[in-house]
Amino acid sequence: MTESCKKALGGSPACKLGELTKWVQCSGGRCDTVPSAKPEPPSKTKIMVVVKAPDNKDTITIGKGRNVEKLGELLDLATIALSDVYVTGLVKCCPPKRPPSVQEIKFCSGHLADELKAVDPDVVILMGAATLRAFNLMGEGGVNKLHGKIIEKAFPHDDTNDKVYKLMVTTDPNALYMNPDPRLQGTMVKDLILAKAVVEGGLVNPDQQDVDYKLIEDKYDLAWMIGEIKEKGMFAFDSESRGLPWSEQPLICLQFCWGYDQPRRTVAVLPLYNHDPDGTDWKLKPTWDHHGREMVIEMLKEIFEDPNIPKVAHNIKYDMCVMRKHLGIETKGFLFDTLLMHHILWEHPPHDLEYLADLELNTGNYSKGVHDITGHGRVLRNTYDHVPDKILHPYGAKDAESTYRLFCRYYSRLKALPEQWKLYTDEVHPFIRTMMKAEWRGTCLSTDVIDTLTKEFMKEQAALSVSLKERTWPEFNGDKSDDVAKAIIQAGYGRDIESPKTTKGYSTDKSKLLPLIKKLPIVEEFMRYRSLTKLISTYMNNAKDMSGATDGRARISVLLHGTVNGRPSCGFLHQIPRLDRERIKKGLGNLRDMFIAQEGYSLVYGDYSMIELVVLAIKSGDENMMEIFRSGQDIHKATAAQFVGLEDHEVCAHNRDLAKPVNFSRVYGAVEGRSLLKLTWMDLEGNEWPVTKEMIQAGYAALDERFPAAGTYFINTVSEISANAGIHITPFGRVKHMGSTLNSGNKWARENAERQAVNGTIQSPAASVTIRTLNAMNVYLEEQIKAGVMTEEEAALIITVHDSGLFEVKNEHLGWFEDKLREIASRPVPQLNDWCFTMKVGIGQSWSEAELNAK
């Protein structure tokens, strides 16, 4: 056993990790250390279970600690005798509300090595992502990819032990508290049963059953497949492209499935390219000559463009774009998206196809052969053209079959839930087509604006770097948390950034730095330096890459399942800062200036700017709030008056701007108001004063007094959802499952769940209103196209972010388009008391200009 582990088990005084982390109690001597799983030397046991750490400073024994209690339930369901199990932790102490650090794992690896030798298990079960570090399994795809099979590997942290252990990976038992999905529990039990089988019979990895698919090699094969699909009357399909984006990368093959467990084949793979290891730019060669490819396209149109044949796919929006781009085929008929069907049934991620197939169908890690070549994630080691046909085709066939089988399950479940099925048909299904068209259209990005902003940000950051180094030390790097922490500690404010929840014992995130600005002004410059890094690396560089598309239009993918509340999300769009009017006054640009209209067109921006506050008023029944909206008064001005203690007519623009984050912090359930501490308010003489904690508390109390129903709504909502087993259903039929977290004994988890509960009841209905407005506008535009008023290219949605939409419209259509958008946006919404929401609309040559003109 290592000396550090002996100290850990002995509970010696906390060791020091250097100046920056001197208040950290590391696992080499943490004061809250615990004994090992069994105080006496462990003996031979059949199964060794490794969890990440003890719970709540308790020993790791069955029946003690929430994590291990849940493990005991799982073992019981798998009929594994507790006498056959030895449970230990990756580390031997309880890290404060965080996973164990690499350093802590290293400190405890010696003890784990001793346990492995003494227990000599037939199988080792690693529970949760953190425990993968015990055997250096990081980077192998995570728990979702590794579970359900046997991995053979020696313990890498002990040179004296060369035994090869049989390893099983499964989910952390704690996941069942946050995600109480019975199917997830079933998968974990299956993993444990497999471990039991290894012990009892020496079972090796179960072979995944290959799909019996037909390879389409000529027109006769294709005619057979088309005939089978027409006879069935529906089909599932999947596409394999070389990589991303779909607009630039070739389509390699298509896979189809129209049945399962039938006496004849119901799966087919149609290659458009074949793997060619000698290829230059692409490792591909065409499967068909020009005439053959044209024949394939015409035959596929018979099923894809038949509106009477429903189509099934996983993330079908992507496949529809691929079909149109590379084959010129429109996907018509009713669309069943298994990803979005699952999102309605269970909103919590993951939603990827292979995970769901394994969860529902026990398909295992069938993509291993492909990902051994390509790697994992969005940035691949190799593109899909490097995958041989003998690996890619079975993988694609399994994708198609899994999609079909998931559809069969999800369809029956949704149909049994009338509200959720109506949500799919009335909102989600039409939104697929709305957003497919937006992504297909793309948006123009100005390279001139991108270059100008990039140069400005880089120049400002360079000057700021020089200034910070002069006031700290020559090697100071504002992007390094350690350097920022060291500078704060040297200034005498180390206690202000202490954070026992983190590995290093300190935190330099926004929540810690904001309250420090008034004490230590240089902190604001640290934050600005970081902000500039993000602007340059996340936005400007990505925007530059996207602006280089072949046709000059950037395709920005929006995830329709990106949030648990049903609001679409886009990592690029959602983080772009709102318009900074101070920069505009100085003649400087905004990031939204990048988005421009093509020649002869304008951008039309429509925004439900305060829809969440209106939803709060409607849902809470607060008459005072609703009267403000009915009469066209300014809710932000009313809030500012209460918050700073003035009359409504005395509120200046400065104080009104302060009210915006006040209002939305309440909507988002973040009533602590930490972000307000860096702001100021203005008295009647024009003097600026800092916002204080006392002012925030008094301000919120005043708001509750003026808007009492809204104030009690936050409390009542949490109680109602908690009493309903953590389940909430919106007026539009979207279900949110909070599980037991609203009653958690963990204060942080409970408060976070309360914020999510409040936010979900407001944000989800607001998202539904916006989505249905965009859908209705899309339907109207389709009618105008059919009537010959315009073509598809002359007016289209190109972007949606938060509760707004940005359209690109040919100038000759601007008049009727603006009027129709306002009309559709203000239609009565029956699910919300027939309220008529107001959308601000503006027109301009850029997103910024259109937004500035919105009224």
From TrEMBL:
From the UniProt record, give one GO term of the biological process aspect.
Answer: double-strand break repair
Tell me the GO molecular function terms: 3'-5' exonuclease activity; DNA binding; DNA-directed DNA polymerase activity
Identify this protein by name: DNA-directed DNA polymerase family A palm domain-containing protein
**Start and end of every 3'-5' exonuclease domain?**
213-415
Q: Does the keyword Ligase apply?
A: no
Q: Which UniProt keywords apply?
A: DNA replication
DNA-directed DNA polymerase family A palm domain residues: 591-813
PANTHER family documented for this protein: DNA POLYMERASE I, DNA POLYMERASE NU
Species annotation: marine sediment metagenome
